[in-house]
Amino acid sequence: MKKIAVLFLFLQMFALQAFAQQYKYHIVKRGETTQEIARQYNISEETLFKYNPDARRGIEPEGKLVVPINAGAQDNIQASGQEGQKFVMHRVKRKETLFSLSQEYNVSIEDIKRFNKHLYSEELRRGEKIRIPESSPAALTQKPDPSPSPSNIFDLSVKEHVVLPQETLYGISRKYNITIADLQRLNPNMQNLQPGMVITVRNGNVEKVVDVDGKLFKYYQVQPQETIFSLTRRFGISRDSLVSLNPALADGLKSGMVLKIPNIELTEGVGEYEAEEFVNLERKMNNYSTKNLVLMLPFNKNKLVVTDTSDNYADRIKKDQVMQLSLDFYSGVLMAVDSAKTIGISTDLRVLDTEQNPGKVNLLLNTENFNDVDAVIGPLLQSTVETAARGLERRNIPVVSPLSKKQITALDNYLQARPTDEMLREAMITFISDNSAGKNLVIIADGSAGETRRRLSAAFPSARLVTPSEGGYINQAQVAGALDKTRPNWIILESDKIGVLSNATSYLNSLADSYKITLLTTDRNKSFESDNISNSHLGKLNFHYPSVDRAFDPEKNRDFIQKYVEKYGVVPNSAAVRGFDVTYDVLLRLASAENLYESVKNDSATQYVENKFSYELRPDGGYINNSVYILSYGKDLNLKVVR
User: Which InterPro entries does the protein's record reference (predicted)?
Assistant: First the structure.
């Protein structure tokens, strides 16, 4: 049986090599569909999509498609292989994603979508039943993962590469870090390189940093017990970006794998934010008295039963998101206290459990001693932090709200450390206004973003407006008619509907080779994180959005990350980093001024691991952090700060 499988793979590879140099361009005629074009060349629609991925979202008259010639036999082989395809019917559970299902069933996300067509434009819905193939083509040919050894640490296996339009031998050789001579030896029958060809390649020596597609990357070998999450935090890259750069991760992370990682030190655009002036308060310390801090967090210890075992505690924490958030934030606070101690700041830290209850907060205010308290950090939730600030206003004790994004009624002692969503939106509109000269502005906004659309139209009266249909579809002709080939096109996309975002980004991506397009939004909401929104599309469109924090630099913050890992055994998540940044900023401000109020009045802007702080006095009382980052995706899927 094994011999038959090997023979089949050998014959399939031979067929691909023989077919590799036969192709042509097809000019799309008005009214033609991908199904008709595939039938015309005796290939499957999926084969057409393989060579023209953007065609899956639609084709345009006069557009060019790469079409393989004489591929009918290959399609027949593939089709026969799927005649007996078996499926698992899976009912979607809460919090499940396409990525988690692909890992659970060892199939690719693309295979799940292929057999559930609605998932190309819709998100998974809890309770729905979907078909999952028992194994994907990639899984069928996947070899067992051997244990790492000196001889197989780096993947030198032979693989196939489909030549893209405008690719050169030099570009391919740099992509796989091998010489042009190696490419020619691997493909002795290759003459002129043409789009659509399937050639044989292999990875070269991946230990060194190589130039790929004009961007610098480094390669990293996965260590035992590492996870995708720990890698994203270590290298300051999102999970989707990591998977997009390393498609093999769709089949799971394995020890010994070699991953391509953006080399943040050398990547274009990194460091632009350094142009902004930040104050290093470590150099301005003059108040070395012990700092008395009170930390108020909803640990919800009241929900834990005394008779519970440690395993039960762990289960309860996992199920209680607020408790988990509090513990992560608290771990960052302790790191900040330790870091402050190394530079001469002593801290007396008291921790109080608010139990997510304003009544409990009032009880704590009346029973705990708040004399000589320099600052209170927390509580986390809106109702409880407001209760704490009101109760301590008469004592003039500053209360720092670390996560709340809504402004409360004016209180003189209230310091809001997170900018509001409105401030993020205003920062983005200001950024667009400051850089819109010579740009063609187009606004795509649906009914869910009606107020934002009105504000954008008022701010940019010459901008062209495109309104998606109620079903979430974009009028492609209207979008194309609004674009300008003579100027950069800045497209402002406003919606919280996955269908609208998926439809718009896919279509704009298909136009990006013909037009200069930059995609922007004033609100990067949770819908942008859907599996249906392609990060590679966002990267190609140089997606810009406002953010409270940035991805931390793993090189510049290596000491912090290393100490955190040594103390807790995991890489810090965003809540832990937030706890560190807020607390360390408070301690340094207290050490560089008479009190916290004096420090924030000095209008000193500070920046730490992921967050920056610049407090402004609210006209009706209190202070709010007005610091907002404008971030953008690069083609290499690396985030950079543009403002």
Answer: LysM (IPR018392), LysM_dom_sf (IPR036779), Peripla_BP_I (IPR028082)
What pLDDT is stored for residue 567 in this prediction?
87
Contact in structure between 73 and 66 (CB atoms under 8 Å): no
Q: Please confirm whether the linkage preceding 144 is cis (ω < 30° from 0).
A: no
How far is the CA of 119 from the CAs of 114, 240, 275, 474, in angstroms?
Answer: 8, 17, 43, 17
Can you tell me the distance from the alpha carbon of 538 to that of 506, in angstroms, rounded to the nearest whole number? Answer: 9
The pTM of the whole model exceeds 0.70: no
CA-nearest of 6, 16, 11 to 189 is: 16
Q: How many residues does the chain have?
A: 643
Query: Which stretches of 542-622 are assigned E, i.e. beta strand?
Result: 544-547, 606-607, 612-613, 615-617
Q: What amino acid occupies position 346?
A: S
pLDDT at 402: 94
pLDDT at 293 over 80: yes
pLDDT bin (cut points 50, 70, 90) of residue 131 is confident
- Residue whose pair of structure tokens reads 């950024």 in the numeric block: 431
**CA–CA separation, 546 vs 567, rounded Å?**
33
Record the tokens describing residue 50, joined without a space. Answer: 């393989």
Ordered DSSP codes for 310-353 = HHHHHHHHHH-HHHHHHHHHHHHHHHHHHHHHHTT--EEEEEEE
Domains belonging to the chain, first-starting first, are 1-82 (3.10.350.10), 85-142 (3.10.350.10), 158-262 (3.10.350.10), 281-416+583-627 (3.40.50.2300), 422-547 (3.40.50)
The string of pLDDT tens digits covering residues 334-388 is 999 999 998 889 999 999 999 889 999 999 999 999 999 999 998 988 889 999 9
Structure tokens at 1: 């049986």
